[in-house]
Amino acid sequence: MTTTSGQTDSGRTGRAEDWRETNRAMWDERVPLHTGSAFYDLAGFRAGRNDLRGFEPDEVGDVTGKRLLHLQCHIGTDTLSWARKGADVTGLDFSGAAVEAARNLAAEVGEERARFVEADVYDAPAALRGETFDIVYTGFGALCWLPDLARWARTAASLIAPGGFLYLAEFHPVAMCLGEDGRAFAEDYFARGPLTYDEAGSYADMSAPTRHNRSVEWLHTMGDVVSAVSAAGLRLEFLHEYDFTLFEFLDDMVRGRDTSGSRGGGGTVYRLPEGRPRVPMVYSLRASKD
User: Fold this and answer.
1) What is the pLDDT of residues 42-79, one digit of tens each?
2) Triad 177, 181, 184: Cα angle to 5°
3) What fold characterizes domain 7-288?
4) Is the distance from CB of 39 to CB of 203 less than 8 angstroms?
5) 142 has pLDDT over 60
6) 83 φ, ψ to 5°?
């Protein structure tokens, strides 16, 4: 996951090839912060908590016995949450530290239907040796780390078995452009990047001392996402938008419980105060492979 605070330079980075290693160093350093943080609350997860948002299981459907690939899985809490729903899961991430943490967590909770692979998302087909999956899942805060969305969509499509589908749940690009007061745009919706940031700490602990603070991100419009998925040969089934998000990133946001979906997620979400015009904060889409 990521927030949009801390931008220092919206120009191009020094060398295009630096972005991957820059981001990897940042994520590797933050893994121990995240595994020990109250934000991820791994003790609660070990005790049985499911970290999926309420609408996700409804939109994905029954995953019992399905092969599910989670791209950019980080420390694996969402991946293992799908395993707790009955899926045979594979998590993939470019951070070796994150993959190691995910493997340890799977062992601690006794989840034998989970495996974790260290690889860049663009290299996933080779790393997985041509294996395909019933469901390819990408969760919150993933797409902003990828410069080439069309390549991402082609990669995801190549990993889906016939009759399977891509499911994406992400932060909405409109919300990511709002200023802190939530009333006007502060960022250019069409400024795709690269955007460079230099910010200590982490969304899980903003006060944590860190050394690798530089990161490189990209913005992708809703049109970019839908067009990339369609161009990859996938058939869009739905695009849903929601008026809540997972972070208190705007002034005066109201904290509440996730009541989306037929069973509710039970986690914490944030909305704009009642009476304020609502904007889309997160979205989900599902696209199938015939």
Assistant:
1) 999 999 999 999 999 999 999 999 999 999 999 999 99
2) 50
3) Rossmann fold (3.40.50)
4) yes
5) yes
6) -60, -40
Instruction: Judge contact between 245 and 281, C-beta under 8 A.
Output: yes
Q: Model-level pTM?
A: 0.93
| Locus of tokens 């909305």 | 271
Sequence-ordered strand ranges (E) for the chain: 7-9, 67-71, 88-93, 114-118, 133-138, 160-171, 195-198, 214-217, 235-242, 254-257, 268-271, 282-288
How does residue 11 score in pLDDT terms, banded at 50, 70 and 90?
Answer: very low
CA distance 4 to 111: 34
Which of 286 and 261 is assigned the larger pLDDT?
A: 286
Whether 137 contacts 147, CB under 8 Å: no
Could you state, in order of their start, the residue ranges of all structural domains in the chain?
7-288
How high is the pLDDT of residue 14? 42
Q: What is the largest CA-CA distance in the chain?
A: 52
Query: What pLDDT does residue 290 have?
Result: 92
CA gap 115, 239 in Å, rounded? 29
First and final C-alpha spacing in the chain? 31
